[in-house]
Amino acid sequence: MTDPGPDVEREFHLEPFRDHLGFERGLSPRTIDGYLREARRFAAFAVSEGAASPGQVTYQLLRDHTARLAEEGRAASTVARCVYALRGYFRFLVVEGVLEADPSERLEAPRAGRPLPDVLSVPEIEALIGAVRPDDWAAPRDEGILELLYGCGLRVSELLALQGRDLDLREGLVRVRGKGGKERLVPVGAAARSAVGRYLRESRPTLDRGRSQGRVFLNARGGPLSRMGVWKILRRHVQRAGILKRVTPHTLRHSFATHLLEGGADLASVQEMLGHADISTTEIYTHVDRSHLRQVHRSHHPRG
Asked: Using CA atoms, how far apart are residues 2 and 186, in angstroms rounded to an integer?
């Protein structure tokens, strides 16, 4: 119920609130309508719960209202807009002397969930790496780049900063300098070890003309590969693989984390390999993992 009726509108000072939004705050008609809609919705709820005037509204009643919206399936952003509108409404009532205390003062807006990262499926990853043409002079380099980005979950800046001493292919480890200069050791899988080893043996010696600055991955002129260079390499192979998704170097990092979790890796280990300072940053991948599990359930359970 969003239309509380004229008596409730009068008792809850909704008309003066509208005038305040338009004349004093100078808000747009669309914003005014949104604020007023939320105030009306809450007034109707309050009356239905036995609060006949703003003075009878409690913090708990406000919490119950926003919880009800969430239970109805409203997005976190929608509930947050409701909270902001009600805060403005009750501040207005305090300023006008209708209320002595603001019951919405401790009311918190829910945090909108971060969007889930785009990931490639395992077959898409295989198609991407398989799109590197063996007869291309850059094939060993490009394959090595793709294998490290996906196989180790590196950021593109971390990949570009790699120097020869950072790679221990015999032990299967790479030393990565992440954000804030923090170093971490990340395992290098067999496929990445093979691809990078071939690049170091076959391609890099011919590319290095003394301008490499010790960097592992070089461009055709022998200098350190740039961020844009990696983007172009990735875009070329994405097109060759026929992948229609928007793919960035970070997509391979997201795919690395997601596929590890889908394979049973624990969150703390994935956090360490990604170089996240806070595990809450890594937790976004658990949502991706859950969506995968839901899809598996739907596809394979008799009552899915």
From this structure: 56
Catalytic one among 20, 40, 253, 254? 253
Which residues touch 265 (CB under 8 Å, ≥6 apart)? none
| Residue from 243, 248, 221, 240 nearest 157 by CA | 248
Helix H or strand E encompassing 273 = helix 267-274
How are strands ordered across the β-sheet holding 167-168? 167-168, 173-177, 183-187
Is 285 one of the annotated active-site residues of the chain?
Answer: yes
3-state secondary structure of 303: coil
CA distance 156 to 141: 15
Query: Active site includes 245?
Result: no
Residues linked to residue 176 through DSSP beta bridges, in sequence order: 184
Give how far Cα 17 sits from Cα of 6, 63, 99, 235, 238, Å: 14, 22, 14, 54, 55
Is residue 253 flagged as an active site residue? Answer: yes
Q: In angstroms, rounded to a whole number, what is the distance separating the alpha carbons of residues 203 and 137?
A: 8
- Active-site residue identified among 114, 179, 209, 227: 179
182 catalytically annotated: no
d(CA 222, CA 213): 10
Show pLDDT as tens, one digit a residue, over the chain (304 residues). Answer: 456 678 889 999 999 999 999 988 888 888 899 999 999 999 999 999 999 999 999 999 998 898 888 767 777 788 888 999 999 999 999 999 999 999 998 888 776 655 657 889 999 999 999 999 999 999 999 999 999 999 999 999 999 999 999 999 999 999 998 877 789 999 999 999 999 999 999 999 999 999 999 999 999 999 999 999 999 999 999 999 999 988 999 999 999 998 998 888 888 888 899 998 777 677 777 666 555 555 654 665 555 4
